[in-house]
Task: structure prediction
Amino acid sequence: MENKEFVKELTKMDEDFAQWYTDIILKAELVDYAPVKGFMVIRPYGYAIWENIQKILDNEFKKTGHRNAYFPLLIPESLLNKEKEHVEGFAPEVAWVTQGGENELSERLCVRPTSETIICTMYSKWVKSYRDLPLLYNQWANVVRWEKTTRPFLRTSEFLWQEGHTIHATEEEAREETLRMHKIYADFLENYLAIPVVMGRKSEKEKFAGAEETYTIEALMHDGKALQSGTSHYFGNHFAKAFDIKFQNKEGKMEYCYQTSWGMTTRVIGGIIMTHGDDRGLKLPPNIAPIQVVVVPIAQHKEGVIQKVEELKDKLSKHFSVEVDIRSEVSPGYKFNYWELRGVPVRIEIGPKDIENHECILFRRDTLEKETIKLDKLEERIKELMVDIQNHMFQMAKENVEKHTFIARSLEEYLDIFKHQQGYIKMMWCGCQECEDKIKEEVSSTIRCIPFHEEKLDNKCAICGKEAKHMVYTARQY
Amino acid sequence: MENKEFVKELTKMDEDFAQWYTDIILKAELVDYAPVKGFMVIRPYGYAIWENIQKILDNEFKKTGHRNAYFPLLIPESLLNKEKEHVEGFAPEVAWVTQGGENELSERLCVRPTSETIICTMYSKWVKSYRDLPLLYNQWANVVRWEKTTRPFLRTSEFLWQEGHTIHATEEEAREETLRMHKIYADFLENYLAIPVVMGRKSEKEKFAGAEETYTIEALMHDGKALQSGTSHYFGNHFAKAFDIKFQNKEGKMEYCYQTSWGMTTRVIGGIIMTHGDDRGLKLPPNIAPIQVVVVPIAQHKEGVIQKVEELKDKLSKHFSVEVDIRSEVSPGYKFNYWELRGVPVRIEIGPKDIENHECILFRRDTLEKETIKLDKLEERIKELMVDIQNHMFQMAKENVEKHTFIARSLEEYLDIFKHQQGYIKMMWCGCQECEDKIKEEVSSTIRCIPFHEEKLDNKCAICGKEAKHMVYTARQY
Result:
């Protein structure tokens, strides 16, 4: 009885994808809504996913020579105003502190929406000579952007992220750095989150406010919408000029620095949910799952069962992150649903009969398959499963992207596809903003990126018919 | 020449302790001042110390069953107002967000000065039954308190911390939790930061706003002032009543929860500096040092020297955190001062002669002693040194505390001590606030804590002469 109820509570993915998403994040206890509209509370299970993300990315950043630092939360309005494009991009969506203690402030302070301006201010103090370069800093922090429409993880007025900010002596080095981080993001999504990505750069219109070039990794969600999952910006020396970040080069001359920034946010947790989830709930790739194996006893009141379960936990905990569920007030069936909803990759079921036969049942969340395994082979088998599940989940996601990637050679074809389908539409593009605006107007889709490897689908722009400059990926977006 | 200049730049500790502190934090590149008064930038070397602190504490928290979560930065004024004592304590020192995007907000939001109110709001949603209890959550976050007089690490308008917030079914459990965390803090300071502490509870006056009991660990700095280094609060069910956090107990009756909170901040980095530092700069205990060993080549232009240094790094990096300094533009002497200023516990000096003799020189930062050691004994010797230095630093700090702990049996004695000395003054106390206020008025000292183990110095209060209730530690404070 209770099992059926459990599943019934989840909206079916195909019925209402948005409601399905909301059901999962709330019922799997990843997040909750905060008392202030647009803000979220990240609950322990959701935060544990973020901690794993942090651990892995932080390690990648440090291996490539980056160091963490911390810059202030509040930025004076005058600093925000220093770089023209930047302030135009961010000023409309920041929160302003106007009172400190019992006093009105003489200058408004914005809660950082991103930290270029404050970091540039410090860099201009710290950098004197080419010997001080590069500075390769990263910050793990919260940022606030006053969003009108919000959804937990995907778009919230406060979110957590890392923001890397680097300055270099040459354009070449800075461009290399931008691409290095772009690659680290892509590898992270594919190898850990099992999310296939398209790598490329943004169009002029979609670039970050103040950037010369923005690189993005785009991921396709199960409903055919794209999720921008991590961006890396090359700034040239726009900010260096605005903030006067100069250094003495080897020849003794003063030069402006070249700069990058790059960020990934709690949004990718939304990406995991919408790439892998199903009607039973969340599905977590083993490489990122806070709990990789859950042990559920059958007939746990029988002698020796709980003891065996604890024994398994001790043994398996050396290699995996293991949880046991010995609650007495709910049935094994309830527990199965409970942990499936939470996306734990592997479940072990074990009862008195199994113990007698020196075996147990293994259930894998990705394929929902069960197998019986001898206890002395258990460790080895779970090791294999971790790799299998990770690979299989990536493969499934990849197939889904392929199935939902289309080609349009004319506006008519383009619109026709959106009548029946959602997904990436690849098309040739002349490079002008009118054609970009046209697809947004018609079907709310945008150019997600100009990929590194452009296929030549045609000679002319699918929208206006003029000579094509690029092949682009377009989609509706989160 | 350049070496002398280096040291000359540091103010002597005995000449001007405050300036010495400022010199160290800036010149060792731990922090810098931010564009907004009272805010600090934590530079990579300072942040690396914080990362080590986080890693160790987080591990202790998880071992004792706590989980991390994240609650919003901004708290509506109406929530802050719910618990009377709490709002009185914090309202005067918060920063207020009054505008979001382009709109005036209908209700002011405070930037969290601490998160009891927002977390209680969520707990009241999440807790239904005794089965949901306890909730043992912790958050790593930034908080803002609008301070008038600030000093980096010690008191800043924004700082980083962890705040644990737990709720329990019984008073007993909550009280146990409070003391458990109090003990974890004390052990952390003593075993990792090599800072001896006095453990005890705060007087009524010095308690946290809204707490029934506040426990504190106090540390004595080199100038004889006390630093409150970590507090744990038992709330009873004050907040539970204000925020309606109720649960159904085993008997089916509704009850209010019992609650705790506990926090440690970036302030302890100031504690490390002021406990261990000397006229050469910072001195870091090996258990917390971001760099434990630095290798400085002598005559590095000679064949094979750099190569040997890199070889040592590779070998030693398996056990220690190692840095090599092969800058060619500065002398070995400059490098010695540079790394001494940064408090690296062990330095290796190695040149062509040493390489010929299969040896090197080891320098320890705590005693400034040098020794020659055969290269094949190096690893083993550094392992010993790490333990020795850690213990020795703790011992030295302990002796300093003992030397600066005094006893006063009357107000006269009390004031007399402050004429010549700074430190802890132990005294008997009647328990009334007038006597507490008296010493503050006279010499700006306060009751730091009522220790667990009270010595009976006398029968009567040192200040008013009435019957004594407690023995207390008093001091001037940071």
Chain A touches chain B through 55 residues (CB under 8 Å). Residues 13 and 20 of chain A are 5 Å apart (CA to CA). Chain A is about 35% helix and 25% strand. The first helix of chain A runs from residue 2 to 8.
